[in-house]
Design brief:
305 residues, UDP-galactose 4-epimerase, domain 1, 2 domains, 7-stranded parallel beta sheet, 3-stranded mixed beta sheet, 10 strands, 37% helix
């Protein structure tokens, strides 16, 4: 029997970005919680032809009418908005696709929710909206677009009564992660005995396991049913263990029982490198459960390392 505490707000959910690393894990968590899940996907997205059981696909070709139709047909109790285009450093020709993915789609989604009377949204933000402090200061253009969408959300909350929680994420990891990010580089080097070329390694990171992040999304959806919850609020989703890059490598080395051959200082820090992290408000009533040591051991087991 399903644990009643795992119920989210209602039994129908609409997810954008459901084929990304966090998105596909969230879809799995929602299905496991007994939700009928609807996904808004572009026609060329993986999985459109063969969705999992209890998952329904609605196609998005860039038109507002596509989103309006998807919301009207799915009639979601809650919308999880994860779709975005992440670029740590953009080029001139990437401005239009970034605006389309991070601002236009979200605005179309809010308009569709307003038209259909759908009131509950969990939005995905980023800690990079706060560069070197707790006041808004975007690290990059990507973070600016995330903030721009939140400003548009403020209008729809006031005008259409949409209730929303913005979950600001730091770094994520977990099984099945094919993104070319830090842990994949480190795990690859364990397999090949390569020598990763790293920065000096003093920047602080906050890695959260994807299962913990998904539990935060479900918990946030339940919070929206509380009448005392503000119309729009923002919370940080922390993994609970902030460590420097060097310290994270040491935790992985201990889990693996091996030393990595890292060339520290071989590459400079990125422009506008985040050295200290935003200290945002914690999501009320939620805590991460998976430690870095536990998560790293599971990744090593997955790779038979």
């Amino acid at each position: 029997m399903r644990d009643p505490s795992q119920r989210v707000l209602g039994q129908r959910a609409l997810v954008t970005g459901g084929t990304g690393f966090i998105g596909r894990n969230l879809v799995r968590h929602l299905v496991d919680a007994g939700c009928a899940v609807h996904m808004l996907l572009r026609p060329n997205s993986p999985g459109t032809d063969n969705p999992p059981a209890n998952v329904h696909i609605h196609l998005y070709r860039g038109e507002t009418s596509d989103v309006v139709e998807a919301v009207e047909r799915s009639k979601p109790d809650v919308v999880f908005h994860l779709a975005s285009l992440f670029l740590a450093q953009h080029t001139t020709d990437q401005i239009v696709p970034m605006i389309q993915a991070n601002i236009l789609l979200g605005t179309q989604l809010l308009e569709a929710m307003a038209c259909a009377g759908v009131k509950s949204l969990i939005n995905t933000g980023t800690s990079w909206q706060y560069f070197h402090g707790n006041s808004y200061r975007p690290v990059n253009l990507y973070a600016s677009t995330k903030q721009a969408f939140e400003d548009i959300l403020a209008y729809y909350a006031d005008a259409a009564g949409i209730r929303a929680i913005n979950l600001c994420l730091f770094d994520s990891y977990g099984p099945g992660d094919t993104r070319k990010k830090l842990l994949r580089i480190l795990l690859d080097s364990l397999e090949t005995d390569a020598e990763p070329q790293m920065s000096p390694g003093d920047q602080v990171l906050d890695l959260a396991h994807v299962d913990d992040i998904c539990s935060a999304f479900l918990h946030a959806a339940r919070l929206l049913s509380d009448p005392e919850q503000p119309l729009v609020s923002s919370y940080a989703v922390s993994g609970g263990q902030r460590q420097s890059l060097r310290e994270i490598v040491a935790i992985l080395e201990k889990a693996a029982g091996r030393t990595l051959r890292i060339n520290w200082g071989a590459t400079p820090y990125r422009p506008r490198e985040v050295m200290q992290l935003w200290d945002g408000p914690a999501l009320p009533g939620w805590q991460p459960r998976i430690t870095l040591a536990e998560g790293f051991k599971a990744l090593l087991h997955e790779r038979s390392l």
